Automatic annotation (TrEMBL), chain A:
This is DUF1700 domain-containing protein. It comes from the Bacteria. InterPro entries: Perm_prefix_1. NCBIfam families: perm_prefix_1. Keywords: Membrane, Transmembrane, Transmembrane helix. The chain crosses the membrane at residues 82-103, 109-128.
UniProtKB/TrEMBL annotation, chain B:
It holds the Pfam family PadR. The lineage of its organism: Bacteria, Bacillati, Bacillota, Bacilli, Bacillales. This is Lineage-specific thermal regulator protein. Residues 15-89 form the Transcription regulator PadR N-terminal domain. SUPFAM superfamilies: Winged helix' DNA-binding domain.
Length: 132, 109
């Protein structure tokens, strides 16, 4: 039955260590061994039985996915980005307003940079909408 | 042997049904599936364990170690209350699906 152990080790070698992985490996080994005993009971030689059990086992990709480290979900930061853009643009706009009225109150020009700056929260608003 | 994706989508229900009848362990389930389908469908063990993991994660089954057999302790699975409810729902869903697909698949030959 050493061959079974070796096979299972080989199968699972790329999966990160975890309690869950060890439990599944144990389970798989146990079940494979039982299958081998069964097949031998049907008259197969040990080698044939082991080979058949291994061939029948199939592709482990699915299982890998279940056992793989669950990828931390990428946090959706678009709402945060939106708030950042709103506060950021408010600060910039108030800076313009201040400069405008402090140094050149006779001409109202702060509107122009304000429009430019507003593209920022506008973009963020729609990128937030898109993720909803 | 069928290896269709259609069955794949129902493996969870198939396994739930089998552990609903009685507590079973992995190899027993794969044998039972082959036996009941007259070997027309055989589940790959690798797939089986993946489904166990999924079902356990969803709390539809849980497991315990049973008696020692050749090789080691068998890991048995049993259905949870949630699992039973889920199974019942999937049965209803399947009936509905089957009726719809039958509308288009029947009466051609």
């Amino acid at each position: 039955m050493k061959k079974i152990n070796g096979y299972v080790e080989e199968l699972f070698k790329n999966i990160p260590e975890s309690e869950q992985k060890n439990a599944v490996m144990q389970e798989v080994t146990q079940n494979l061994e039982e299958k081998v005993w069964d097949l031998m009971g049907e008259g197969k030689t040990e080698e044939d039985a082991i080979n058949k059990a291994i061939v029948d086992f199939g592709d482990i990709e699915d299982l890998k996915q279940e056992l793989g480290v669950s990828q931390p979900k990428k946090r959706n930061t678009s709402k945060l980005n939106l708030w950042y853009s709103i506060w950021g643009s408010l600060l910039i706009i108030s800076l313009f307003v201040f400069i405008n009225f402090y140094y050149s109150p006779e001409i109202i020009w702060f509107v122009y940079p304000t429009f430019a700056v507003l593209w920022w929260p506008l973009t963020m608003y729609f990128s937030w909408k898109r993720t909803k | 042997m069928i290896r269709s994706d259609i069955i794949r989508g129902h493996l969870e229900s198939i396994i739930l049904r089998l552990v609903c009848e009685e507590d079973r362990y992995g190899y027993e389930i794969s044998k039972e599936i082959s036996a009941r389908t007259d070997n027309r469908f055989q589940i790959k063990e690798a797939t089986l364990y993946a489904v166990f993991q999924r079902l356990e994660k969803k709390d539809l089954i849980d497991s315990y170690f049973g008696n020692v057999s050749q090789g080691g302790k068998r890991k048995y699975y049993r259905i949870t209350t949630l699992g039973k409810a889920y199974l019942k729902e999937t049965v209803e869903e399947w009936k509905e699906t089957k009726a719809i697909i039958d509308l288009f698949m029947e009466g051609l030959d």
